[in-house]
Every structure is written in structure tokens, then in C-alpha cells.
Specification:
The complex is a heterotetramer, with 2 copies of chain A and 2 copies of chain B. By secondary structure, chain A is α+β, with helices and mostly antiparallel strands. Helix content of chain A is about 35%, strand content about 25%. Chain A starts with a strand and ends with a helix. In chain B, about 15% of the residues lie in helices and about 35% in strands. The chains are: A alpha+beta, B alpha+beta.
Chain lengths: ~450, ~140, ~140, ~450
């Protein structure tokens, strides 16, 4: 095992990694920006090194500063957490070149998964279900029509270089395809100087399902089951659950096995999350793989009893999977996580400022991951996550009740928070019935 | 009891200091004993206001205005360009704005650090080959 | 007990110092003993002092000095000795110290509450048959 | 189920009861003393009523004030928590007479268990092992000698009315018995005006083992297994574990069944804890039954997955045991609780004062029960418990590591705490080996 791990992150995930290191008897080095001097990750790490100014680019994204900090502290590994440099293949390579273990997949896996088209092709080749569509760019509306007829409407046209909705058209009626194709091409051309268009099946009301995987350095990969993260606002997850609603054990087993085989084949190691869309016929379609620990990992920890961050450390140190996770992974009960953000409930903008009073909820079945305390200032420079509250119980109904209770007993004064929104979600009949999809929040907020 | 008397003396002494210095509170703690004396609101006696507290920078200059040269990066501090060379600057030596005062090595790159001030090197705060943080004070420079 | 006496002496000694030095607070801690003596607000001696803060009772009297009759227990407030009887006191009515102003029922016992003040009932703060907390204000009494 | 429960307590246990009520959709009424106006139980309850001055006798022990508060708030039940009025049979009777459900055993059970001699006799009659000794007071040293010879030395002489060690003598050598008997009698006579002396086997280095039981109103009682609470200082528990160290499943089953039968026979209902001494041959001897929820209940909750306070509410409302606990109670993993007290580590006196900064530990496997927050004042009037930290993991070793980590990541400034003592305990080789007894702390502190 490592002697000393540098944590290239801040906030609750830095504390989470310190906790995992401490459980293993590994020393920790915190790095921090000048804005984070009074942060708990600085307090709790064995050493702490200031690496730059408040802006992330000067500190938590500052690769030379982080590598230098690892060198002067003599750290033998770096845990990147999530966000910041967690999926930066170049950073993983620099770590490797400097003889520092990067706690995550190898740079090639990170790079492959970072290219969405390549990742999709690799997944498809490995037998992971992907959204039906054109594998190559389409050059004429007749081509598009042929593919669309084959996979069935509705379909979505997307610019190959696209982003932000430009060059994108949803087509529900075959008669609209020709004009939509033309519009998409010209938009794409104007926006990206590239008129490549491809076509995919369009899922009207998808649910967001993701599988947690772990792999070792010896060619073994295991799936730890799925999470449901359909409660999103503007693609930001607000609440996650494990297991997914009405998800059957056979599908869990089946997809899990396909994923394990596919990722073994590409030599994937450490933690990863495979994201899928699920349509109303409960069919799953691969979207992407996140090559890092996920914010919402505690729900999987709750139902499997497996400490995922500890597992990351052990796997990165070369432990075989068999000594890290039990032979048979059992899913016990149900877990829900709420991301308590400091944000304005109307504008959704971060509500930076000083927390005047904070008393986290406790009691049975409640886990809190937070770097907040009374007197701590929510920094405008970083994300607005203040606390992750995870409720675990024998049944989903009991987990919902525990979460409602916990949020009602969370004192958080001085900043505006997402708690009132979470409370509305938890009372909504569709949520309670488990019958919701990724459009839940926009419809709730109407 | 003897102990009571000792305490009385100590408390009175603290109260007198409180007066003499125009303070509102003194806390005193020593082996097994803790004493706090306070006077709310107005301080008796001379009670001119104390000068604003100088921000604690941990260092000496009693009277002194000094400037600090701080590290612009995380890395390893080197006093000289090579183990054989003499240090760029020495305590008591004179520096000019723009003069190289040390090297910070970060990611195998040697970064020359220049003085922002003209003056005299009052103190060097870091040992050779020691790791330094971002913004860590390296030298204190007093004006001529 | 001898121990009590020692403590008494120490406390008195500290209280004397408090007076003599015009302090408002002394805290003293030593082997297993902690003593704090304080005098709120007024410091003896030279110091001039701000007038003591009026405790905020939330109520109206603009100019007004008033006294409150507060509930000495948790229970149910009754304005009269029986539903048929007239209230013990009415707003605007005069009360004398020791006069019964209401009944608080607690555990089936009727407790007569007496006025601590001579004066006029400026306001009744609780409705008949309403529950009241410990220390909850019941009436405001203005002096004549 | 009840509509509204009044909580006749304060601090963390009041929050714990609010949590259980909220999980069940039951409204809560807090009562508080003038010193507790800014307490979280006041903040979190649906209603709060001030019942008296700071001293417990004027507030939390003030029966008329509490009953009146229940009446004006129209509460249909009272949960007494632990301490204060929890084991006051008269209070339970008054509640009953006022038509308010007392959430606990019936007054007769409380009274029986409050009389240690009667409780011992009832236990013995029911087949629960008790310390061998004289069932009746002894009037001559020859009688004492006869009993002692039968049960074997060492023995302990105790005044029937005794307390505080007066009239108590440990006798290891038969030759010392006669003079010890005389001394005990004269001390007892002087102290209690009663020279009754009885004799019991003396256990040199006992361990403290206790069984958690639950009973319904329909004659069913179940045991939920044991806890070990041998880490005590001056009879105050500091750290508790479940299950007990090297405690075998057969004994758990066997004693559990005896307890269930015995308590069914006397009509015991609701929660209770049966305390035993265990000698170095691992034989158990009944000491007493605590007819209430226990401070250390979270360790049993952790390993059984059963919410004990929720169970208390359901059972008091008349639910049958079968609908409150699962058919088969399984013990999963290991749990440890540390009672973080605000106290001087040298003098053990409460360190009352303002908490300047408090950030509770979180992360996987950690539960915190606390009513503290930054800026909250530890009151000198009440006990010094600031937070209960419970660690749960698959094995005892992992639970110890998690607890060490959690305590190292607990920020608690402004008052002195027992955390350094807990840290010493958790590092001690005897503790780590699970090979300790009730003299552990006195030997640690030498």
C-alpha cells in the first residue's frame, strides 16, 4: 500500500479520500488554494500545501503546482477525486512519468472514454447496447431516411462536432426528415465549420441508469450494480438512488456481465461508471463511461457494503479484485442521496457566502458527507455542493421517509439551499411511486 | 490558606496591569492555574485606545517596515544556481528590484525568482533545498 | 465542612478584588476548582457605564415602563374562577400587589396567580383557556 | 399510531426520538428548560413548550409541568428518553391516570426492576443466572461462612440498604470473613440504621454484557442480542460494542431465549436492557434490568438493522412484535459507539462552555447522534454528552479503524472532550485484542 497519498481536490470528496486513507493507515497530503485556507481538508490531512490562487486554473487545475507539491511532500500516489483533473489523461500520464501512482484508470482508458465517438464504438463492438443509429456521418437526407426507417422514428440528428444543441433536430414524422436534415447541416456548418451529421434513435422520456464497475490491474472487472440518477436539472444530478426503480435482478446480472467482459477486454482498471439511457420499454443504451469516482458513490456503498474509495486505493496499489470485494456482491435495502447545494432556489445560481449555522442531521440510516461547518464560507470559485445526505433503509419507502426526516432536521443558515426543492421531490407522488424520468424536474418546476 | 493569598496577589497584579494598560480583559494560564480578569465596556484609567494590531507575520522587525518576497509557486527552494555556486543573496546583503534572489524548482524546471524591491536582505526564511508552498514568504527585505 | 469555608474565602477574596479594582468579571481556575465572579453592567470605580440594556420583551409601551406578570408554571390560563364568574381583572382595571389576577390549571389543580405589583392592567396577553408555558408573560402592569 | 408525542427529555436522545416520530409521521412536542431555549430539540420539534428553570428538578424532572405541557399540547403519548423520568414508576402511573400513553414498560414492571433485590429474585425464579449468594439477609458470620464455603471465595458482603461502597467488603481469604462481617455490619448500621448484610460471589475482573430486549403488549418478548460495555470509568460507560467480544452464537441464543421466556412471564413490554456480569469463565450473572432505551442503543441498531426507538413507538401503540421486527434477527458486522463527553480529561468534571467550532465526522460506516452545533453552549446543569459516534463495519477490526478515523476527523473546539481518552482506548493492544474487562480504564490511566 502507498505510504502517502496527495489529494488533488477539495471539499467533501477530499475529506472522503482522507477518510479512506486513514482507514488504511495511509498518510495524506492536502493541496489547497488561497481561498481554501480554512477548509476542513486542510485541517484533517496530515500535511497541507498551498498550491495557488483561488481560481481553479491557478490551483486545483494547476498540474505543475500539484506535481511539485507531491514531490516536495514525497507522496507516492495522487487521488484526483471527481471533477478538476480526474479525467485528464495528460495529468494521469504526467503522474506516471513522474513516478507517482495516479489513482484511477490508465491514461489510455481515460483517453478512450474521453472521446465519445470512440467510446461508443468500443462499447458497441464489445456487445454493450448502444443507441441504434448511423455509425458514420451522413451526407444526404436519403441516407438519413434509410437509417431512420430501419431503426424507427423518432430519431435525432446531431452534428458530429456538436454541442449546446446546435445542429441538433428531433424528428418524429418521416415527412419532416428532409427539411430537418438540411437545417441541421447548415447550422452545423455555420457553428462548427463542419457539416457532418449523424443520426440516432431518440428516446422521448429517458431514465438515467448507471452501473458502478471496479477493475484491478490483473485483468479482472466486476459490476456492483446500478444507480438511478434521473432526477436532474439542466443535466446536473440532484438526487440518486440505488438500486434503480423496478430494475430486475436478471437485467442487473446480464448487463453487469457484459460490462465486466467488455472492460476486461480493454484492460480497464480502478473505478468507473457506465452511464445508460433507459427507454420506456426498459431497454438500456450506453451513453458514456466516467473514468473516476462519482459524486453519488455513497448510494452504492450503502447497498453493497463496499467502500468504493478504499477499493480505489487498494486496486491502484495492485491488490487483486478478489481481495478487495466479497465473492458475492449482495444488494441490501435501498439508498437515496440528496446533493444539498448552496444555491438560489429560483435562479439556481450558487449562493456563495458564510454559513451562519450548520448542524448536520444524524440518527439511524443517515450518512453525511460534508466539508461545511458554522462559520465556513461557500466559495464562489467552486461548485456549490455543501453536503451529501445519504439515507439507507430496508425498503425504498423507508429510505424516502428517513431522507425527509433528515432534511427536515438539517440546520443550514446563511446561504440559500436546494433543500426545499429536495423536499418537494420527496413528496411528489410520481417520485414516491418511482415512476419518473429525466424530465421530472422541469415538469415539477412548471 | 496560603494558596488563597497567592491567588489574591496574582489576581490583583493582573487587575493592575489591566488598568495600567487600559485593557478590558486579561486571561492568564500557567501550570494548573487559569485566571481571567475583565472590565466590561469602558476601561478605567488612562484608556487611550491601543494602536491597531499589526497583522502577525511572526517575525522580528520591532519598529520595522519590511517587505516580503513570496514564492509564486510550489516547489523546492534553492539558494544558488548550482551546489558549487555562491548563494544569490546573503542576509545583510543589498538587493535591487529585478535581481534574482533564489531558484524554485518545480517539475524539473528551474524558476528564477526576482526581488520586487530595492533594499537589504533582513532575513532568509527558508533553508536550502526545502519545499515551499505557493505564497510562502522567502525573504524579508528592509528598505534602505 | 472545611472545604466549603475555603471556597467561601476564595470567592469573597475575588469579589473584593472585583470591587476594589472596578472589574466586571474574574475567572479563576486551579487544581480542580474554578471560580468566576462577575457583576453585570455597572463597574465600580471610575469607569462610566452605559445604561443597562432593557431586556426586550417585544411589547408596545412606547414611553412606557411596565411590569409583567409571568406564568410560574405550565398550564391552562383561566381568567375567572368559574365560567359564570366575572374575570379576576380587566384591561384598564387597577390591581394591587397580592391580588389574584388569574388561575393556571395544571394537573387538575387550580393555581391562583397573584400580582407582584400595584398598578393598572395595561394588557392581557393570553386568551381564556389557552395553554401557557413556564415564564410566559400573562399581563402587563403599568405603575400608577 | 399516536398523533402527537411529547418528548420529556433533551439533547441527543430528544433528537433521536423526534427522528423516529418523523419517520412514522407522528407530530412532536419538545419541552425545555430556560437554559435550553437555543437547543436543537426545540428547533426541530413541531411544538416546544418551556416547562421551568434550568435545574432538572424544576424542568425535566418536574412531573406536573410535563403532564400539563402534554395536556395543553394535546399529546397522546410521552417518550421519556433515558435518565430523568425514564424509570420513574410513579411518572408512568401518572401518565396512565391522565390518559397519556407512557412509551415504556408498564409501571409494575418499572417498579419491580427498580427494586434490585426483588428484580434479582424474579430473575432467579425465572431461571436467569444470578450471582450465587445468600438470598436472605445474614445475621451471623457463621451463616456467612456456610454460604461462602458453598459458593467459594472470593465473596462480597453488601449492606442490603447499601450504596456508595459503605457496608461493603470483599473477602478473598476464609480467615478474614468473621472480622469483615463485623465491620460491614457496623458500617451498615451507622450509615443506614440497618445491619442487614447479604453475601454474593465476587467476580474479580468482570466484563459488562447486556442484552437488548423488546416486548409487545400481547405477551411476546424477543432478544436482539448483546452488547459489551466493559469500558467504563467510575461506572460510566465510555465505549460500547455489539456483538460482545468472543461471544458465541449459542450463548446468545440460549440466554436470549431464557430472557424472552422470563420477561413474557412477568408481562414485560417495550424496550429493556438486561445487564450481566461475565466472569473469566464466560459465565453470565444477572445484575439488573434497565426498563428504558439505553444511551448505547445505536450499536444494536447498526448490527441488527432494527430501529429501536421506532420499535418503542410501534410497540407502545399496540403493534404486535411480529410486525415490528423481522422474523429472523441477523447480527451483521460489528459496531462500536464512543460517547464524546465535554469533560476535563484530568478531573473528569464536565467542561461546560461554548462550543466554538463543531464539525461532525461523516463518510462510510459512521453515524453521529448529537445536539451540538458551533455556538451551542454545553450546559453545566445536565450531563456532558456532546455526541455519540457509532462506527459500523464488516469486522471488529474495520470498525475500530473507522472509529479512529472518525474521531481524528471530529472538530470540537471550545470545550475539553473525552476524545483523547477514546483515542488511547482505541490504540490499546488489549482493547484491539478484545481482551479487556471493567478494570480496563483504571489500568489504562495508571
Amino acid at each position: 500500500m502507498f505510504e502517502k497519498v496527495l489529494i488533488a481536490n477539495r471539499g467533501e470528496i477530499a475529506l472522503r479520500i482522507i477518510a479512506a486513507c486513514r482507514d488504511l493507515g495511509v498518510k495524506t497530503v492536502a493541496v489547497y488554494s488561497t481561498a481554501d485556507r480554512d477548509s476542513l481538508h486542510v485541517t484533517h490531512a496530515d500535511e497541507a500545501i498551498c498550491i495557488g490562487g483561488a481560481e481553479s486554473s491557478r490551483s486545483y487545475l494547476n498540474i505543475p503546482a500539484i506535481i511539485s507539491a507531491a514531490e516536495i511532500a514525497d507522496a507516492d500516489a495522487i487521488h484526483p477525486g471527481y471533477g478538476f483533473l480526474a479525467e485528464d489523461a495528460r495529468f494521469a500520464e504526467i503522474c506516471r512519468d513522474c513516478g507517482i501512482r495516479f489513482i484511477g484508470p490508465n491514461p489510455d482508458s481515460i483517453r478512450l472514454m474521453g472521446d465519445k465517438a470512440l467510446a461508443r464504438k468500443a462499447a458497441s463492438d464489445a456487445g454493450i447496447p448502444v443507441l441504434p443509429g448511423s455509425p458514420e456521418p451522413l451526407h444526404a437526407s436519403s441516407q438519413a431516411r434509410a437509417v431512420a426507417d430501419e431503426i424507427g422514428f423518432p430519431v435525432i440528428l446531431k452534428a458530429s462536432m456538436g454541442g449546446g444543441g446546435r445542429g441538433m433536430r428531433i424528428v418524429r414524422d418521416p415527412h419532416d426528415l428532409e427539411s430537418a436534415f438540411g437545417q441541421a447541416r447548415s447550422e452545423a456548418g455555420a457553428a462548427f465549420s463542419n457539416t457532418d451529421i449523424y443520426l440516432e434513435k431518440y428516446v422521448e422520456r429517458p431514465r438515467h441508469i448507471e452501473f458502478q464497475v471496479l477493475g484491478d490491474e490483473h485483468g479482472n472487472v466486476i459490476s456492483l450494480g446500478e444507480r438511478e440518477c434521473s432526477i436532474q436539472r439542466r443535466h446536473q444530478k440532484l438526487l440518486e438512488e440505488a438500486p434503480a426503480n423496478a430494475f430486475d435482478a436478471d437485467t442487473r446480472e446480464h448487463i453487469g456481465q457484459i460490462l465486466a467482459d467488455a472492460l476486461q477486454a480493454i484492460g480497464y482498471s480502478n473505478a468507473g461508471t457506465v452511464e445508460f439511457l433507459m427507454d420506456d420499454e426498459r431497454k438500456l443504451y450506453f451513453i458514456e463511461l466516467n473514468a473516476r469516482i462519482q459524486v453519488e458513490h455513497p448510494v452504492t456503498e450503502a447497498v453493497t457494503g463496499i467502500d468504493l474509495v478504499r477499493s480505489q486505493l487498494l486496486l491502484a496499489a495492485g491488490e487483486p479484485l478478489g481481495s478487495v470485494v466479497p465473492d458475492a456482491v449482495e444488494i441490501r435495502g435501498h439508498a437515496i442521496e440528496c446533493r444539498v447545494n448552496a444555491e438560489d432556489p429560483e435562479t439556481f445560481l450558487p449562493s456563495a457566502g458564510k454559513i451562519e449555522r450548520f448542524a448536520a442531521p444524524g440518527g439511524p440510516g443517515i450518512r453525511v458527507d460534508s466539508a461545511a461547518y458554522s462559520g465556513w464560507t461557500v466559495q464562489p470559485h467552486y461548485d456549490s455542493l455543501v453536503a451529501k445526505v445519504t439515507a439507507h433503509a430496508g425498503t425504498r419507502g423507508a429510505a424516502i421517509r428517513r431522507m425527509r426526516r433528515a432534511l427536515s432536521m438539517c440546520v443550514l443558515e446563511g446561504v440559500k439551499t436546494s433543500i426545499p426543492l429536495h423536499q418537494r421531490i420527496l413528496e411528489d407522488p410520481r417520485f414516491v411511486a418511482g415512476a419518473y424520468d429525466t424530465r421530472f424536474i422541469e415538469e415539477l418546476e412548471l | 490558606m496560603a494558596e488563597t493569598k497567592v491567588v489574591r496577589e496574582e489576581v490583583e497584579a493582573l487587575a493592575d496591569i489591566l488598568d495600567a494598560k487600559g485593557l478590558t480583559e486579561i486571561e492568564y494560564e500557567a501550570a494548573g492555574i487559569r485566571i481571567r480578569v475583565a472590565r466590561a465596556g469602558v476601561a478605567a484609567g488612562p484608556a487611550q485606545v491601543a494602536p491597531p494590531l499589526q497583522e502577525d507575520v511572526g517575525g522580528p522587525p520591532a519598529d520595522g517596515s519590511f517587505q516580503e518576497i513570496r514564492s509564486p509557486m510550489v516547489g523546492t527552494f534553492y539558494e544558488a544556481s548550482s551546489p558549487e555556486s555562491p548563494p544569490f543573496v546573503e542576509s545583510g546583503g543589498r538587493v535591487r528590484k529585478g535581481q534574482v534572489v533564489c531558484i524554485i524548482e518545480a517539475m524539473k524546471l528551474m524558476n528564477e525568482i526576482e526581488s520586487d524591491y530595492d533594499g537589504v536582505v533582513a532575513e532568509r526564511l527558508v533553508a536550502n533545498a526545502e519545499g515551499v508552498e505557493f505564497d510562502q514568504p522567502l525573504f524579508r527585505i528592509t528598505a534602505d
